[in-house]
Amino acid sequence: MARLSLACLVLLAFAMAAAAARPATTADAPPTGNCDQDLQDLIASCQDYVKFPADPKIPPSATCCAVIQRVNIPCLCSKVTPTVETLICMDKVVYVASYCKRPLKPGSKCGSYPVPGSLA
After folding, report:
1. pLDDT tens digits for range 60-99
2. I need a surface site. Which of 35, 40, 93, 95 has the fewest CB within 10 A?
């Protein structure tokens, strides 16, 4: 049960960070809808790519990227807690989102994690 919870938290943080990257949507936008299925899909497809340690960063699978492209990132980012941030590597979340062509907006936040980069 603890392993499943950890996996859920890891993927949740990843999804939230990825959502912040979508140009029309940022992590700061209000969450909309229910993203429970998005979370389950992320756990199933992406958890191995956002686990600690921070290195090495592994390119995500096409399946993981397909999930990243369709999830509700603002909803997922609203679920990232400090506890979640201790279970997943937010630097890897940023890497995977970028790799999957849905980069997080620099200067935005997913949970309490500040996405690196300037606000320019």
Report:
1. 999 999 999 999 877 888 888 999 999 999 999 999 999 9
2. 40
- Rounded to a whole number, what is the distance in angstroms from the first to the last CA of the chain? 43
Coil, strand, or helix at residue 84? helix
Q: How far apart are CA 55 and CA 115, in angstroms?
A: 18
> pLDDT digits over 28-50, tens only?
444 556 899 998 999 899 999 99
Which residues pair with residue 110 across a beta bridge?
A: 113
Cα–Cα distance measured from residue 54 to residue 95, given in angstroms and rounded to the nearest whole number: 10
The average pLDDT across 51-55 equals 94
Q: 55, exposed or middle or buried, with CB in 10 Å at 0-12, 13-18, 19+? A: exposed
Spatial CA neighbour of 92 closest among 120, 52, 61, 65: 52
In 3-state terms, what secondary structure has residue 34?
coil
- Of 69, 78, 4, the closest CA to residue 40 belongs to 4
